[in-house]
Amino acid sequence: MRWLLNSMVCILILLTPDIGFAEGPPKDKSLLVPIEGELNPIIASFVKEEIGRAQKEKFAFVILKLSLTGDFSPALLHTLKTIQNSKLPIVAFVPRQDSPPSLARTFLLEASHLAAMAPETKFGRAPPEDDLDIPLPPEEAAEKNKTMIQQTALLKTLASSQGRKTTWVEEVVREGKSFSAEEAINLGAIDLAAENLDTLLEKANGRSVHVLSQTIILNTQKLELSESEVPEILEAMQTLANPEITQWVVIAGIVLLLLDFLVFGAVVPGAIGLICLVLMLFASGLISPPTAGWTFIVMGLLLLFLEGVVAAMGLIAICGAVSLIFGILILLGHHFPDLLISDTTVIFAVSLGTLFSIGLLSLIKKIYKKFNKGKEEESPA
Which domain holds residue 282? Predict the structure, then answer.
């Protein structure tokens, strides 16, 4: 225990945060945010954080590199709202890729202030795999028609808000039709075609876009492009965001919590169950990354404290350590534009809390030993 305390003290000394203010990047910078794979709550949260960071650090505009698949989803609605509320111009660009057309990608293109695609890419929607000529029951057919009406209305609203034509919307949503980049330009669905990012910046220079209630002229000359890096913890959480995996994590968490309630004193199953449920809430986008990170940290510190009260042969401490690791990885793997907390401060706070918990744990154990020793001495021989 003494070597662990000494190690924590050394870590605290090395990681004590410096007091100061960092200067924001110049306004002639643009942030490139890659969106790959299926759009899920984790990716939607990442996009929101990056756009918020770009606003705070005064980037000129944000480029969304759309290499994604997927259909209409709550995560897509969340991202559309983020784009609409952005104070910076959002440029959507579809690079050369082999993926089929995607309805999610089409919605993001229409919501963006400037929509561009590389030649030989597809715009529109891939025909649904289950779109067969088999007639649906009346209730399912009515629900499907209602959904299509809502999607059509939303897509028309997004396109018209950016001054684009909407004659193609019905074909895309209802018939699953797709168009080439050149056809999309002729239809008035997107703004320009570009071979790559350099060509995009060249063609976007001098264009005016409408952001909220103001008109902004894009200046891309001598522009520095900064690319966002997707945190490794985020990539890992995307696996948990898979509905098939999520349901098993939920079942495991509930079963372990029930076991904890049924078996008196079995704290370990409850701790593992809580970790599973918080992971599921984070991966599903039901709680934000800051909430998930600090929840894991607080839970980890409480479990370390419980290790001194409940005899579990170190299993509770292991659960606490795992919870702390999850919390630190989540907090360090995300940017929080609304919080003025640096990575060093997070490590410092967690290290301080862990040191306090270990010290308190040692104190409780000493008091407990003295108490038992006193009782043994008072008991008659």
Answer: 232-369
